Amino acid sequence: MTAQAKAHWQLHFCVLLWGFTAILGKLITLTALQLVWWRMLIVTLALLLLPKVWRELRALPLRTVAAYAGIGVLVAMHWLTFYSAVKLANASVAATCIALAPVFLAVIEPLVVGRRFEPRELLVGAAVVPGVALVVGGVPADMRLGVAVGVVSAVFCATFGAFNKRMAERTGPLTITCIELGAGTAFLTLVTAVWHAEGSFVLPDLHDGALLLILALVCTLLPFALAMAVLRKLTAYTVQLATNLEPVYAIVLAVLLLGEQHQLDAWFYVGVAIILAAVFMHPLLTRRPITKPHPVVLGTAESKAAD
User: Fold this and answer.
1) Which residue ranges make up each domain of the chain?
2) Cystine design at 86: which of 94, 183, 214, 257 (Cβ 3.0–4.6 Å)?
3) Taking Cα atoms as reference points, which of 90, 102, 93, 82 lies closest to residue 276?
């Protein structure tokens, strides 16, 4: 097997693991806040075991650390709203909403990184509108709040992705992830303390604990490490096309493992197809070079949207 072929297999394995995050969110019985707090804490503690992370942390200016910490709050809000969408609706709905992140990124990124806005990118936004309408119409009424929360999650995903792009290459991606997820953990701890949310810091039982370890280590850190190697071998366009498949993997897994097709109308899947078609057409419609996605975005998002 050639190095290129191996990289392709590794990339799709990463995307498959990311697709499991929504499934695990549905299987874990903790609330969305509890789930995200434990996931962020576990990943942060695992990264703090690496001497390289400590070395890079000591070398960073306090202002840079503060900037990444601020992005970490956005990551926490993205994950919190994503898993809230999973709980309020289901994994398929949450994954579909996150597929909208590249559309929001097309609008948010020019404002954050200071590049010129391309009017043609409005075509992508216009193209997804019928898809979103069909998705909303294809879910039961009691799941529509989950759709709305999922769309908010996609906005958070696009926003922190744009800021990460602006801050790229300031230090190693593992260290950035450690700062962001550590800050996210601290933020959620503070929010819980202020709200006095009863039972927020519960110790997971054996079932939830095992699934949390899989979510944090197998579906977050493992694909993160693989993705860093893959990014050195494949073109940015190839990486983007593959990572845009994550909602497809998640929806297929939800059908196979959770039987969610019985909860959703056929129009939901038609809407999904329209949204994904628009996302995949985005690079062709904008006709500008695709920059390599920064590894930290791959490590901290459910949607691995690249520009």
Assistant:
1) 3-300
2) 94
3) 102
